[in-house]
Automatic annotation (TrEMBL):
Name the UniProt record assigns to this protein: 2'-5' RNA ligase
GO MF annotations in UniProt: ligase activity
Keyword check for Ligase: yes
Keywords on record: Ligase
Organism: Salegentibacter flavus
Lineage, broadest ranks: Bacteria, Pseudomonadati, Bacteroidota, Flavobacteriia, Flavobacteriales
Repeat keyword on record: no
Superkingdom per UniProt: Bacteria
PANTHER family, A to Z: PHOSPHOESTERASE SAOUHSC_00951-RELATED, PHOSPHOESTERASE YJCG-RELATED
Amino acid sequence: MSLYFIAILPPEALSNRIKKLKLELAENYQARRALKLPAHITLQIPFRMSKTREEKLHKILRDFAENQEPFEIKTAGFGRFSRKVLFIAIAENPEMVQLHQKLQKSLDKNLRLKENEKGNNFHPHFTLATRDLSIKNFEPAWKELKDRGFKASFTAESLVLFKHNGKTWDCFGEFFFNKPSTTTSN
C-alpha cells in the first residue's frame, strides 16, 4: 500500500517566499520538518491505496479537474493551531471550500476512503512550522510572526497528487482545471 495526498501548489515565486519563511523558522527555532514538502494547500489528507489502483486514481483526478474552473486564492496573514503549527492563513474562499467538498465526494464515491482518511475538517493554509517546533520555541516564533504582514494572491489552476517514496513526498501527477473559454464578438 502506498501513501498519497492531494494539494494545490502556489506559483514558484510565492513558493520561494514561503520557503524563505520556513528556512528562517528552521534556523531561528529548529523547526525543519515543514521544509520536507513544497509550499502547498492540502485538499486531501494522506491516504493509503494499492499501487494497482493508481491508474484509476489518475483518471478520477483528471476527470474531476477538467470540470473545475480556476479561481483566485489570497493569503490572510499568519495563524496557528494550538502550540504545534504556524502557518500562512488563506482568506475566506467559498470556491476553495466548494472544490474541497466536491473532491471529497468524488474520492469517497470512487475510492471509498477509510473514515480516518477523509479530510472533513478543512482549514486551508501553508504550513511554516509543524510537529518539530518545540513548546519552548513556539511562543517566541509566534510572537515574531503574528504581527508581520504577508500578502499574496494567485490563481489555482490545478490539483497535484503526491506519493510517498518511503522517505519523501514526490509529485505524482498534476491535473489541470478547465480553462474558461473566451469568446470574441465582431
